[in-house]
From TrEMBL:
Residue stretches spanning the membrane: 20-45, 66-87
Recorded catalytic activity of this chain's protein: 4 Fe(II)-[cytochrome c] + O2 + 8 H(+)(in) = 4 Fe(III)-[cytochrome c] + 2 H2O + 4 H(+)(out)
Assigned EC number: 7.1.1.9
Keywords from the named record: Copper, Electron transport, Heme, Iron, Membrane, Metal-binding, Respiratory chain, Translocase, Transmembrane, Transmembrane helix, Transport
Biological role: Subunits I and II form the functional core of the enzyme complex. Electrons originating in cytochrome c are transferred via heme a and Cu(A) to the binuclear center formed by heme a3 and Cu(B).
Top-level taxon: Bacteria
Start and end residues of each Cytochrome c domain: 214-308
Compartment annotation: Membrane
Keyword Transport: yes
Membrane topology (UniProt): Multi-pass membrane protein
Gene from which the chain derives: coxB
Entry protein name: cytochrome-c oxidase
Amino acid sequence: MADLALVPETASAAAARTDLLFLVLLAFSAAITLLVAVLITLFAIRYRAGTQRDRGPLPGPLRREVELGWTLATLFLAVIIFVWAVVQDLGYLRPPAEALEIDVLAKQWMWRVRHPAGPREINRLHLPRGRDVVLRMNSSDVIHSFYLPAFRVKQDVVPGRTTSLWFRPEKTGRFRLFCAEYCGTDHSRMTGEVVVMEPEDYARWLDARPAGDGLAARGEALFTGLGCAGCHLSDSGRRAPVLAGLAGRPVLLADGSRVIADRRYLMDAILRPRQEVAAGYAPVMPGYDGILSEGELAALIAYLQRLDGPEAVQAGDGE
Ligand code: CUA
């Protein structure tokens, strides 16, 4: 279907079925619109002012047949489309039993993802191709909406309730994720991507990100406990650089120099942040020199290095 370019990129079989329904509806509507337009034009010419045409009603029996005919034809079409759409929608409602379950937490203004095997991601969701996936979604603040155009799925994410969404990626690649419910200042920046990989690659990706135990998990606990998330995660990089996906990437500093966010940089930035201010941010972060033990520092860095995120989000990217 995507080849027709009548519809957006398609990445699942369900998406192709939805497109078929849409295109059939479009064809029906176009045909009926055309028919009505042609009849209006013909009648306007045939019965224009001044002509001596017969303007009386059709003979009784014929009139009933014509009326009955178009009423039944319309009803028949409407019922077909209704049943078709209901069957299609019910399919989206019931996730298959064997689906891979992944937790998604929406938060102003980001998507936090937790895989059953442990790894976490922000604004990015890695998936294996050819396997049903069901997302169990919650919001920690307001209503958001998880929207994947390539899969033709969209579901509200509501605080205080778990909503689900399922689909089966059938194509490898990167597909865009949007928030489709206005949720505050940075709603338009609450985007991300779904990365569909071959199952082997997905397994390798999982292996490269061991479960949340050990050093990185301790780092995460520290990150939360010290309140780092308050500026570095919750604000989409307006007060401080968002750290997801930062490790190993270049950072532009306030003095115009560029450094790679390697282990050494991360360490300096935590211990002596005022010398390592990323361009565009006020030097407000307290230094942790003498506060963190060596082990704590190592745990924090292990956590930061594992914190995956889209390339677009990195230090120096804020306004
Ligand atoms: Cu979240 Cu809009």
